[in-house]
Amino acid sequence: MRDSVLATEVLEPYAQALMSLAQSQNLMEPFGENVNALLSLLRDSEDLNQFLESPLVPPDSKKAVLQQVVGDQVHPYMKNFLMLLVDRRRIQFLGGICKQYQALLRELNQTVLAEVTSTVELNDEQKQTVRDRVIAMTKARQVDLDTKIDPELIGGVIIKVGSQIVDASLRGQLRRISLRLSSAT
Hints:
By secondary structure, this protein is α+β, with helices and mostly antiparallel strands. It has 2 domains: 2-106, Peroxidase, domain 1; 111-184, no CATH class. 63% of the residues lie in helices and 15% in strands. The chain has helices at 2-24, 28-44, 46-53, 59-70, 76-87, 94-108, 124-138, 170-184, and strands at 111-118, 142-149, 156-161, 164-169. The mean pLDDT is 88.
């Protein structure tokens, strides 16, 4: 419940505002690249997350660090958006707002997100095979892959697109065989 309220009250309005700005300036893709870079930055630096989320850190310090960290790597409008989030005390929601923006951009581009879990890193050919399978399943124009590694799968992959899950892992196959054997007795 709390997550859905957070999404509708905070994340969606800010992501929508960012998308409106991007559309009015024809900057949807550059903003998408900026958002990906920001998410990567947040994912790679727990210290930055804690710094931005801390209510004890003054807004001017947060702005100075953001200016230093993002520098000229993001569009000036995106930098202004980050400063606005600091001013409105919403910078701690940056990751969620970025993910919401990505979802809006995917919807606009008729792109779906496929979460792929495998035992080892997929090569380009395997990634393309997964993309082709997801396009056939969803009729989307494009597919973005979010890959994760889980050695406990033993082999194969699990593909999740929205609420659909394709479990082509050895662990899943063994579980299905076990269920069949236990129901047959």
